[in-house]
Amino acid sequence: MYNFKEIRCSQRFLIRSFFIVFLFIGNIANASQSLDQQTVTEMIAKADRYRLNSEAASKVISLVNLYESGQLDKTRQYNVYTRPNRESLVVFKSAVEAGQKMLMIEDNYWLLMPKSRRPIRITPMQKLLGEASVGDISTLTWSEDYQGSWVKQQSLTLPSGESLQAHQLKLISKTKGASYQTIDLWVSVDRAFPIKADLYLRSGKIAKQAWFEEGVRNELPSVVAMTLLDKIQPNKKTVIEYLEISEQKLEDKFYNPAYLSRNSVSGL
User: Fold this and answer.
1) What does the buried/exposed string (b/e) look like for 44-81 if buried means 16 or more CB atoms within 10 Å of the residue's CB?
2) 260-268 long-range CB contacts below 8 Å, 24 or more apart?
3) What pTM does this model have?
4) What are the angstrom distances between the C-alpha of 41 and each of 47, 123, 208, 246?
5) How many CB atoms lie within 10 A of CB 208?
6) CA 205/CA 165 separation, integer angstroms
7) Mean pLDDT by groups of 10 residues along the chain of 268 residues
């Protein structure tokens, strides 16, 4: 006579055993696909180079198109001067903002208005205010401002409908003045070209989603535009076109808020 109770127990034991084996194999597979810290760091630095094409002091001419409910609302131009050690000067070039400047020295920020002789200290959060926040156009470097880790490899669907394999990376701010506390960044598996980024505030709330457009600059594959979808005000969208990036070094005086408050830099 068969002992059906024993048979059922044996069946349950086998099922549990197979499940544990498959789970163990799956964990081994996932571990083998994981990327080490050095590889992730190199990947983030490479993604940065697609945006700036240079690690030297640079001038970035940015054209910002502001859309509301699908209609072009405003266009603004900014000339952004960057140099190593997280120093940037943003010169507002559009007529309605003429004379305004933003200076960023590590975690310190100043807004300089044309009719004021006094630099206005602002906070990292204030830097993000406005339709086209300076934090989004100042070409901050992920490799300098964030610590990255690998999350997973996945198939990512582009706005065009095309799919490609991408690494998802988690970037956590390592400076007080970073524009966003955390960033989920997707880069292509084959070249580490930046594809998409979800940008989170310190509260943990997603603020914007960025999509990067590839083109050619100076005969090199480059990010030529970035589309920002506002997740707080979904009817708003910003498209930033990087019209020109060139190596250009400003004198030290231009990174001094006292000098900027007393002198016009309209020629920059």
Assistant:
1) bbebbbbbbbeeeebbbebbbbbbeeeeeeeebbbbbb
2) 260/89, 260/101, 260/103, 260/110, 260/112, 260/119, 261/112, 261/116, 261/117, 261/118, 261/119, 262/117, 264/99, 265/89, 265/91, 265/101, 266/91, 266/98, 266/99, 268/79, 268/81, 268/89, 268/91
3) 0.82
4) 10, 28, 24, 25
5) 24
6) 26
7) 45 39 35 76 94 81 92 93 88 91 89 87 71 63 90 94 95 84 96 96 91 92 93 91 91 94 88
Hunting for tokens 């990376």 — which residue is that? 169
- For residue 192, what pLDDT is reported? 96
The predicted structure's pLDDT at residue 128: 64
Which residue carries 């980024």 as its tokens?
Answer: 197
State both tokens at 245.
């990036």
76 close to 62: Cβ distance less than 8 angstroms:
no
How many residues are given for the chain?
268
Alpha-carbon torsion angle 119, 120, 124, 128, nearest 10: -100
Residues 6+ apart with CB under 8 A from 23: none
CA separation for the pair 221, 195 (Å, rounded): 13
Residue 183 tokens, joined: 């960033």
d(CA 99, CA 115): 8
φ/ψ of residue 35, rounded to 5: -105, 140
Amino acid type, 168: Q
